[in-house]
UniProtKB/TrEMBL annotation:
<keyword id="KW-0032">Aminotransferase</keyword>
<feature type="domain" description="Aminotransferase class I/classII large">
    <location>
        <begin position="42"/>
        <end position="391"/>
    </location>
</feature>
<comment type="similarity">
    <text>Belongs to the class-I pyridoxal-phosphate-dependent aminotransferase family.</text>
</comment>
<dbReference type="Pfam" id="PF00155">
    <property type="entry name" value="Aminotran_1_2"/>
</dbReference>
<protein>
    <submittedName>
        <fullName>Aspartate/methionine/tyrosine aminotransferase</fullName>
    </submittedName>
</protein>
<dbReference type="InterPro" id="IPR015424">
    <property type="entry name" value="PyrdxlP-dep_Trfase"/>
</dbReference>
<dbReference type="GO" id="GO:0030170">
    <property type="term" value="F:pyridoxal phosphate binding"/>
</dbReference>
<dbReference type="InterPro" id="IPR004839">
    <property type="entry name" value="Aminotransferase_I/II_large"/>
</dbReference>
<keyword id="KW-0808">Transferase</keyword>
<dbReference type="GO" id="GO:0006520">
    <property type="term" value="P:amino acid metabolic process"/>
</dbReference>
<dbReference type="InterPro" id="IPR015421">
    <property type="entry name" value="PyrdxlP-dep_Trfase_major"/>
</dbReference>
<dbReference type="GO" id="GO:0008483">
    <property type="term" value="F:transaminase activity"/>
</dbReference>
<dbReference type="InterPro" id="IPR015422">
    <property type="entry name" value="PyrdxlP-dep_Trfase_small"/>
</dbReference>
<dbReference type="InterPro" id="IPR050596">
    <property type="entry name" value="AspAT/PAT-like"/>
</dbReference>
<keyword id="KW-0663">Pyridoxal phosphate</keyword>
Length: 392
């Protein structure tokens, strides 16, 4: 017996391996300062949990429609459309088990083997994995550090489009860099998509995780609604990472395929969790603003302490819950040129656990600076201060 050959092309989210290494180090009596996972150590709001319990008690425990219950699709259409200033019909909304399946189903729907998809690198590692697993070529585009933060290298995006390119993945409010596009950059990506007739996956997982300014969706630009799939998730905004609830907003022909794929893959998203989703969207939003307040304070502490460490520097991001410091000089100070070694030394010497640039896509030739990602969503401010103090 053999396993399928295509598994050779399957990647993964290696941040989970960092979590295992940290847990192992912790189990040997060491204090761990967990900056590695984009999970949230703030519980789901009580009114959302109550709605979930009520739904279970009310018997919402059987199968339901593959595209999601109509009440949730309606609430999502209203919320997502309203926040982005676009018209969303409930028929365009397909409920899924989190945001991640939207990536897989998007690739399965728009790409044939041998075709190319552009994706951000460093970026969420599942893009690269799913494109290659499904027989495509994952074509990276990068972000350039500038005086005004990280900017998409638009010249590289332009140069990378070929007659085999079918889609571009765009993640504004970006993981791991926390980069944000200017309106001009967003328009430039939209213009390229229209000019070359490309699909766009707009990964909006962090759309509401913002401390300053306003988020905008590429789907709201002229000519984009018919070619854009929005990835929406309850994971971050409502601290519901383990409940697995999200959706795609897609043009009708794509939404219909997604719904059929859901029926093939999961039958439906967990029925009672969907009722909790309605409460999350329509109930009090106080817990969301409270959480953003806590995260903002953690962000400020993280950036202040990172910038106090000789050889590390970072700008204060306006969104997400990640910082992506340049650690090139700090690595020289501790005498290593290898990011993996640097992270291991940090864990063993101080208990501080983090992912590095290497966990976010294959390194692109020509990169000469080294970066790590610190996620402050899963660690209290007192531990942030203690951990980064030790790291310094
Ligand atoms: N997209 C990005 C950019 C993410 O960072 C994540 C999770 O970390 C996801 C998608 C997937 O989120 P979910 O937990 O909803 O599957």
């Amino acid at each position: 017996m053999t396993l399928a050959r295509r598994l050779e092309r399957l990647g993964t989210e290696t941040a989970f391996a960092v979590a295992l290494a940290a847990a192992d180090w912790g189990s040997r009596g060491n204090t761990i300062y967990p900056f590695h996972l984009g999970d949230i150590n703030i519980p789901t709001a009580p009114h959302i949990v109550e709605a979930m319990n009520r739904a279970i008690a009310d018997g919402k425990t059987g199968y339901c429609p593959g595209a999601g219950i109509p009440e949730l699709r309606e609430a999502l259409a209203e919320d997502i459309g309203g926040q982005r200033g676009i018209e969303v019909d409930p028929g365009n909304v397909v409920v899924m088990t989190g945001g991640k399946p939207v990536i897989t189903k998007f690739i399965q729907t728009v790409m044939d083997p041998g075709q190319e998809v552009l994706y951000p690198n460093p970026g969420f590692p599942i893009y690269e994995s799913q494109i290659e697993y499904h027989g495509g070529t994952a074509v990276p585009y990068r972000y350039l550090p500038t005086e005004d933060g990280f900017r998409i290298d638009l010249d590289q995006v332009r140069a990378a489009i070929t007659d085999r390119t079918v889609a571009i993945i765009y993640n504004d409010l970006q993981n791991p860099i926390s980069a944000e596009s200017t309106p001009e950059e967003r328009q430039a990506i939209a213009d390229l998509a229209v000019e070359h007739d490309l699909w766009v996956l707009s990964d909006e997982a962090y759309f509401e995780m913002r401390y300053e300014g306003e988020s905008s969706s590429i789907a709201a630009l002229p000519g984009m609604a018919e070619r854009t799939v929005i990835l929406y998730t309850f994971s971050k905004k409502f601290a519901m990472t383990g409940s697995r609830l999200g959706c795609a907003v897609a043009p009708p022909e794509v939404a219909s395929v997604f719904s059929t794929l859901n029926t093939n893959d999961e039958s439906c998203t967990t029925h009672y969790v969907q009722w909790a989703g309605i409460e999350a969207l329509r109930g009090s939003q106080q817990s969301v603003s409270d959480m953003l307040g806590v995260l903002r304070s953690r962000r400020d502490a993280t950036c202040e302490l990172v910038n106090a460490i000789p050889g590390m520097s970072v700008e204060v991001p306006r969104s997400t819950f990640y910082v992506f410091p340049d650690v090139t000089e700090a690595m020289e100070r501790v005498g290593t040129a290898d990011l993996g070694d640097f992270a291991e030394q940090a864990l063993h010497a101080t208990g501080v656990s983090f992912c590095t640039r290497r966990h976010f896509g294959r390194p692109v030739p020509g990169e000469d600076r080294h970066y790590i990602r610190l996620a402050y969503s899963g660690i209290d401010e007192s531990a942030i201060r203690e951990g980064l103090g030790r790291l310094g």
